[in-house]
Amino acid sequence: MAGRYAPGPRPTRTGVRGGHAPTPVHAPVAGHVPVPAQKTAPATGSPDPSRTREWTPPWPLDLGLTLGPLRRGPGDPAFHAAPDGSVWRTSRTPAGPGTLRVAARAGTVRAEAWGPGADWLLDALPALLGADDDPGAFTPRHRLLAATERRRPGLRLTRTGLVMAELIPSILEQKVTTDEAYRAWRLLLRKYGEPAPGPHGGRLYVVPEPRTWALIPSWEWHRAGVDAKRSGTVLRAVRVARRLEEAAAMTPPEARRRLELIPGIGPWTSAETVQRSNGAPDEVSVGDYHLPGIVGHALADRRQAGDEEMLALLEPYAGQRHRAARLILLSGRTPPRRAPRMTPGNIAAL
Predict the structure, then answer these.
(1) Within 10 A of 242 (CB to CB), how many other CB atoms are there?
(2) Other C-beta atoms within 10 Å of 154: how many?
(3) Rounded distance, CA 140 to CA 158, Å?
(4) φ and ψ at 165, to 5 degrees?
(5) For strand 205-206 and strand 79-81, is the pairing parallel, antiparallel, or unpaired?
(6) Which DSSP string corresponds to 233-286?
(7) Distance between CA 213 and CA 200 in Å, rounded?
(8) pLDDT tens, 167-220?
(9) Of 348, 126, 158, 167, which is closest to residue 264 (Cα–Cα)?
(10) Does the structural domain 164-195+202-331 have CATH classification 1.10.340.30?
(11) 22-35 burial by CB neighbour count: b if 16+ within 10 A, else e?
(12) Alpha carbon of residue 87 to chain centroid
């Protein structure tokens, strides 16, 4: 759910489980040449003709609510919400890189796509916009959730069908403020990502392929503010990227089990990933810094709730606990801040 539970810098994730062996500091591997920064000038035109698709969902659709969790902060190089209400998003699909523009008018969605992955993105459009989601399975048992659901009829849970694109930014968000994670994502995508196809004026980039992630030198991770533990987790994940991508076709519990086989990927990170990649309505971000307190305050007026109490409060929504948490966040009922905020780190200055 994008992990954006309160404004301003703050600690976010405790997704790394204890008990893992420490990640070694990266050193250049013999025979490997560190990948250079992307030198190709961003495309300003569209040499590729676009592909288009129109689709009319049989329910009210709110593009911002549905696709918002895919945006990794302001200035995300892979996501742009345009002033005209359209949403642009880049993806590295099984068919290659692609750019998708989606706009909704009078109940009809018009999508335009560019690049080798265009057809894949258009085929996946209904799932991206929540066609696989079933809000009817949710029964609000608290007046706050009932009221929020009535006010937000266009909320659907997205399903991207792409695991690595959701996993890597979730790893970057572990145990740091959101501002730090957003900055790292922006810097790494702009330096090592591929300029996206399509007429976006050089604004957008496609997430790097696994080999490119694997060849980023340690000092560039450091410069982006990513410590060795998180960068090491990314490196372990990209080495088995093909196997992890298979999780998009699994049930959410199976997908999480596969992701958590990688040291450094714990319950928080796997939940944040499958919420987006698999459209998982029941996967809760256990280990989040703010979410238990927000759920406790909304449902029981308890501001100091922990994970166990949060799960107990969400138990009546078993099967739809992630949707319940999204509705709580959208309700605006959050506890007032009293504790000091976490000071952002700056390992790049060390």
Answers:
(1) 9
(2) 16
(3) 20
(4) -65, -25
(5) unpaired
(6) HHHHHHHTHHHHHGGGGS-HHHHHHHHTTSTT--HHHHHHHHHHHS--SS---T
(7) 24
(8) 999 999 999 999 999 999 999 999 999 999 999 989 999 999 999 999 999 999
(9) 167
(10) yes
(11) ebeebeeeeeeeeb
(12) 15
Q: How many CB atoms lie within 10 A of CB 340?
A: 6
Give me the amino acid identity at 47: P
The DSSP call for residue 45 is S
> For residue 24, what are its two tokens?
């070694």
Q: How far apart are CA 63 and CA 46, in angstroms?
A: 24
Q: 314 with 305: CB under 8 angstroms?
A: no
Which is it for strands 205-206 and 96-105: parallel, antiparallel or unpaired?
unpaired
For residue 112, the cross-strand partners are 52, 101
Q: Tell how strand 96-105 and strand 108-114 pair up.
A: antiparallel
Q: Please give the model's pTM, rounded to 2 decimal places.
A: 0.85
Q: Which sequence spans correspond to the domains of the chain?
A: 51-133, 164-195+202-331
List, for residues 31-87, the tens digit of each pLDDT value: 333 444 444 444 444 457 899 999 999 999 999 999 999 999 999 999 999 999 999
Residue 156's φ and ψ, nearest 5 degrees, are -135, 150
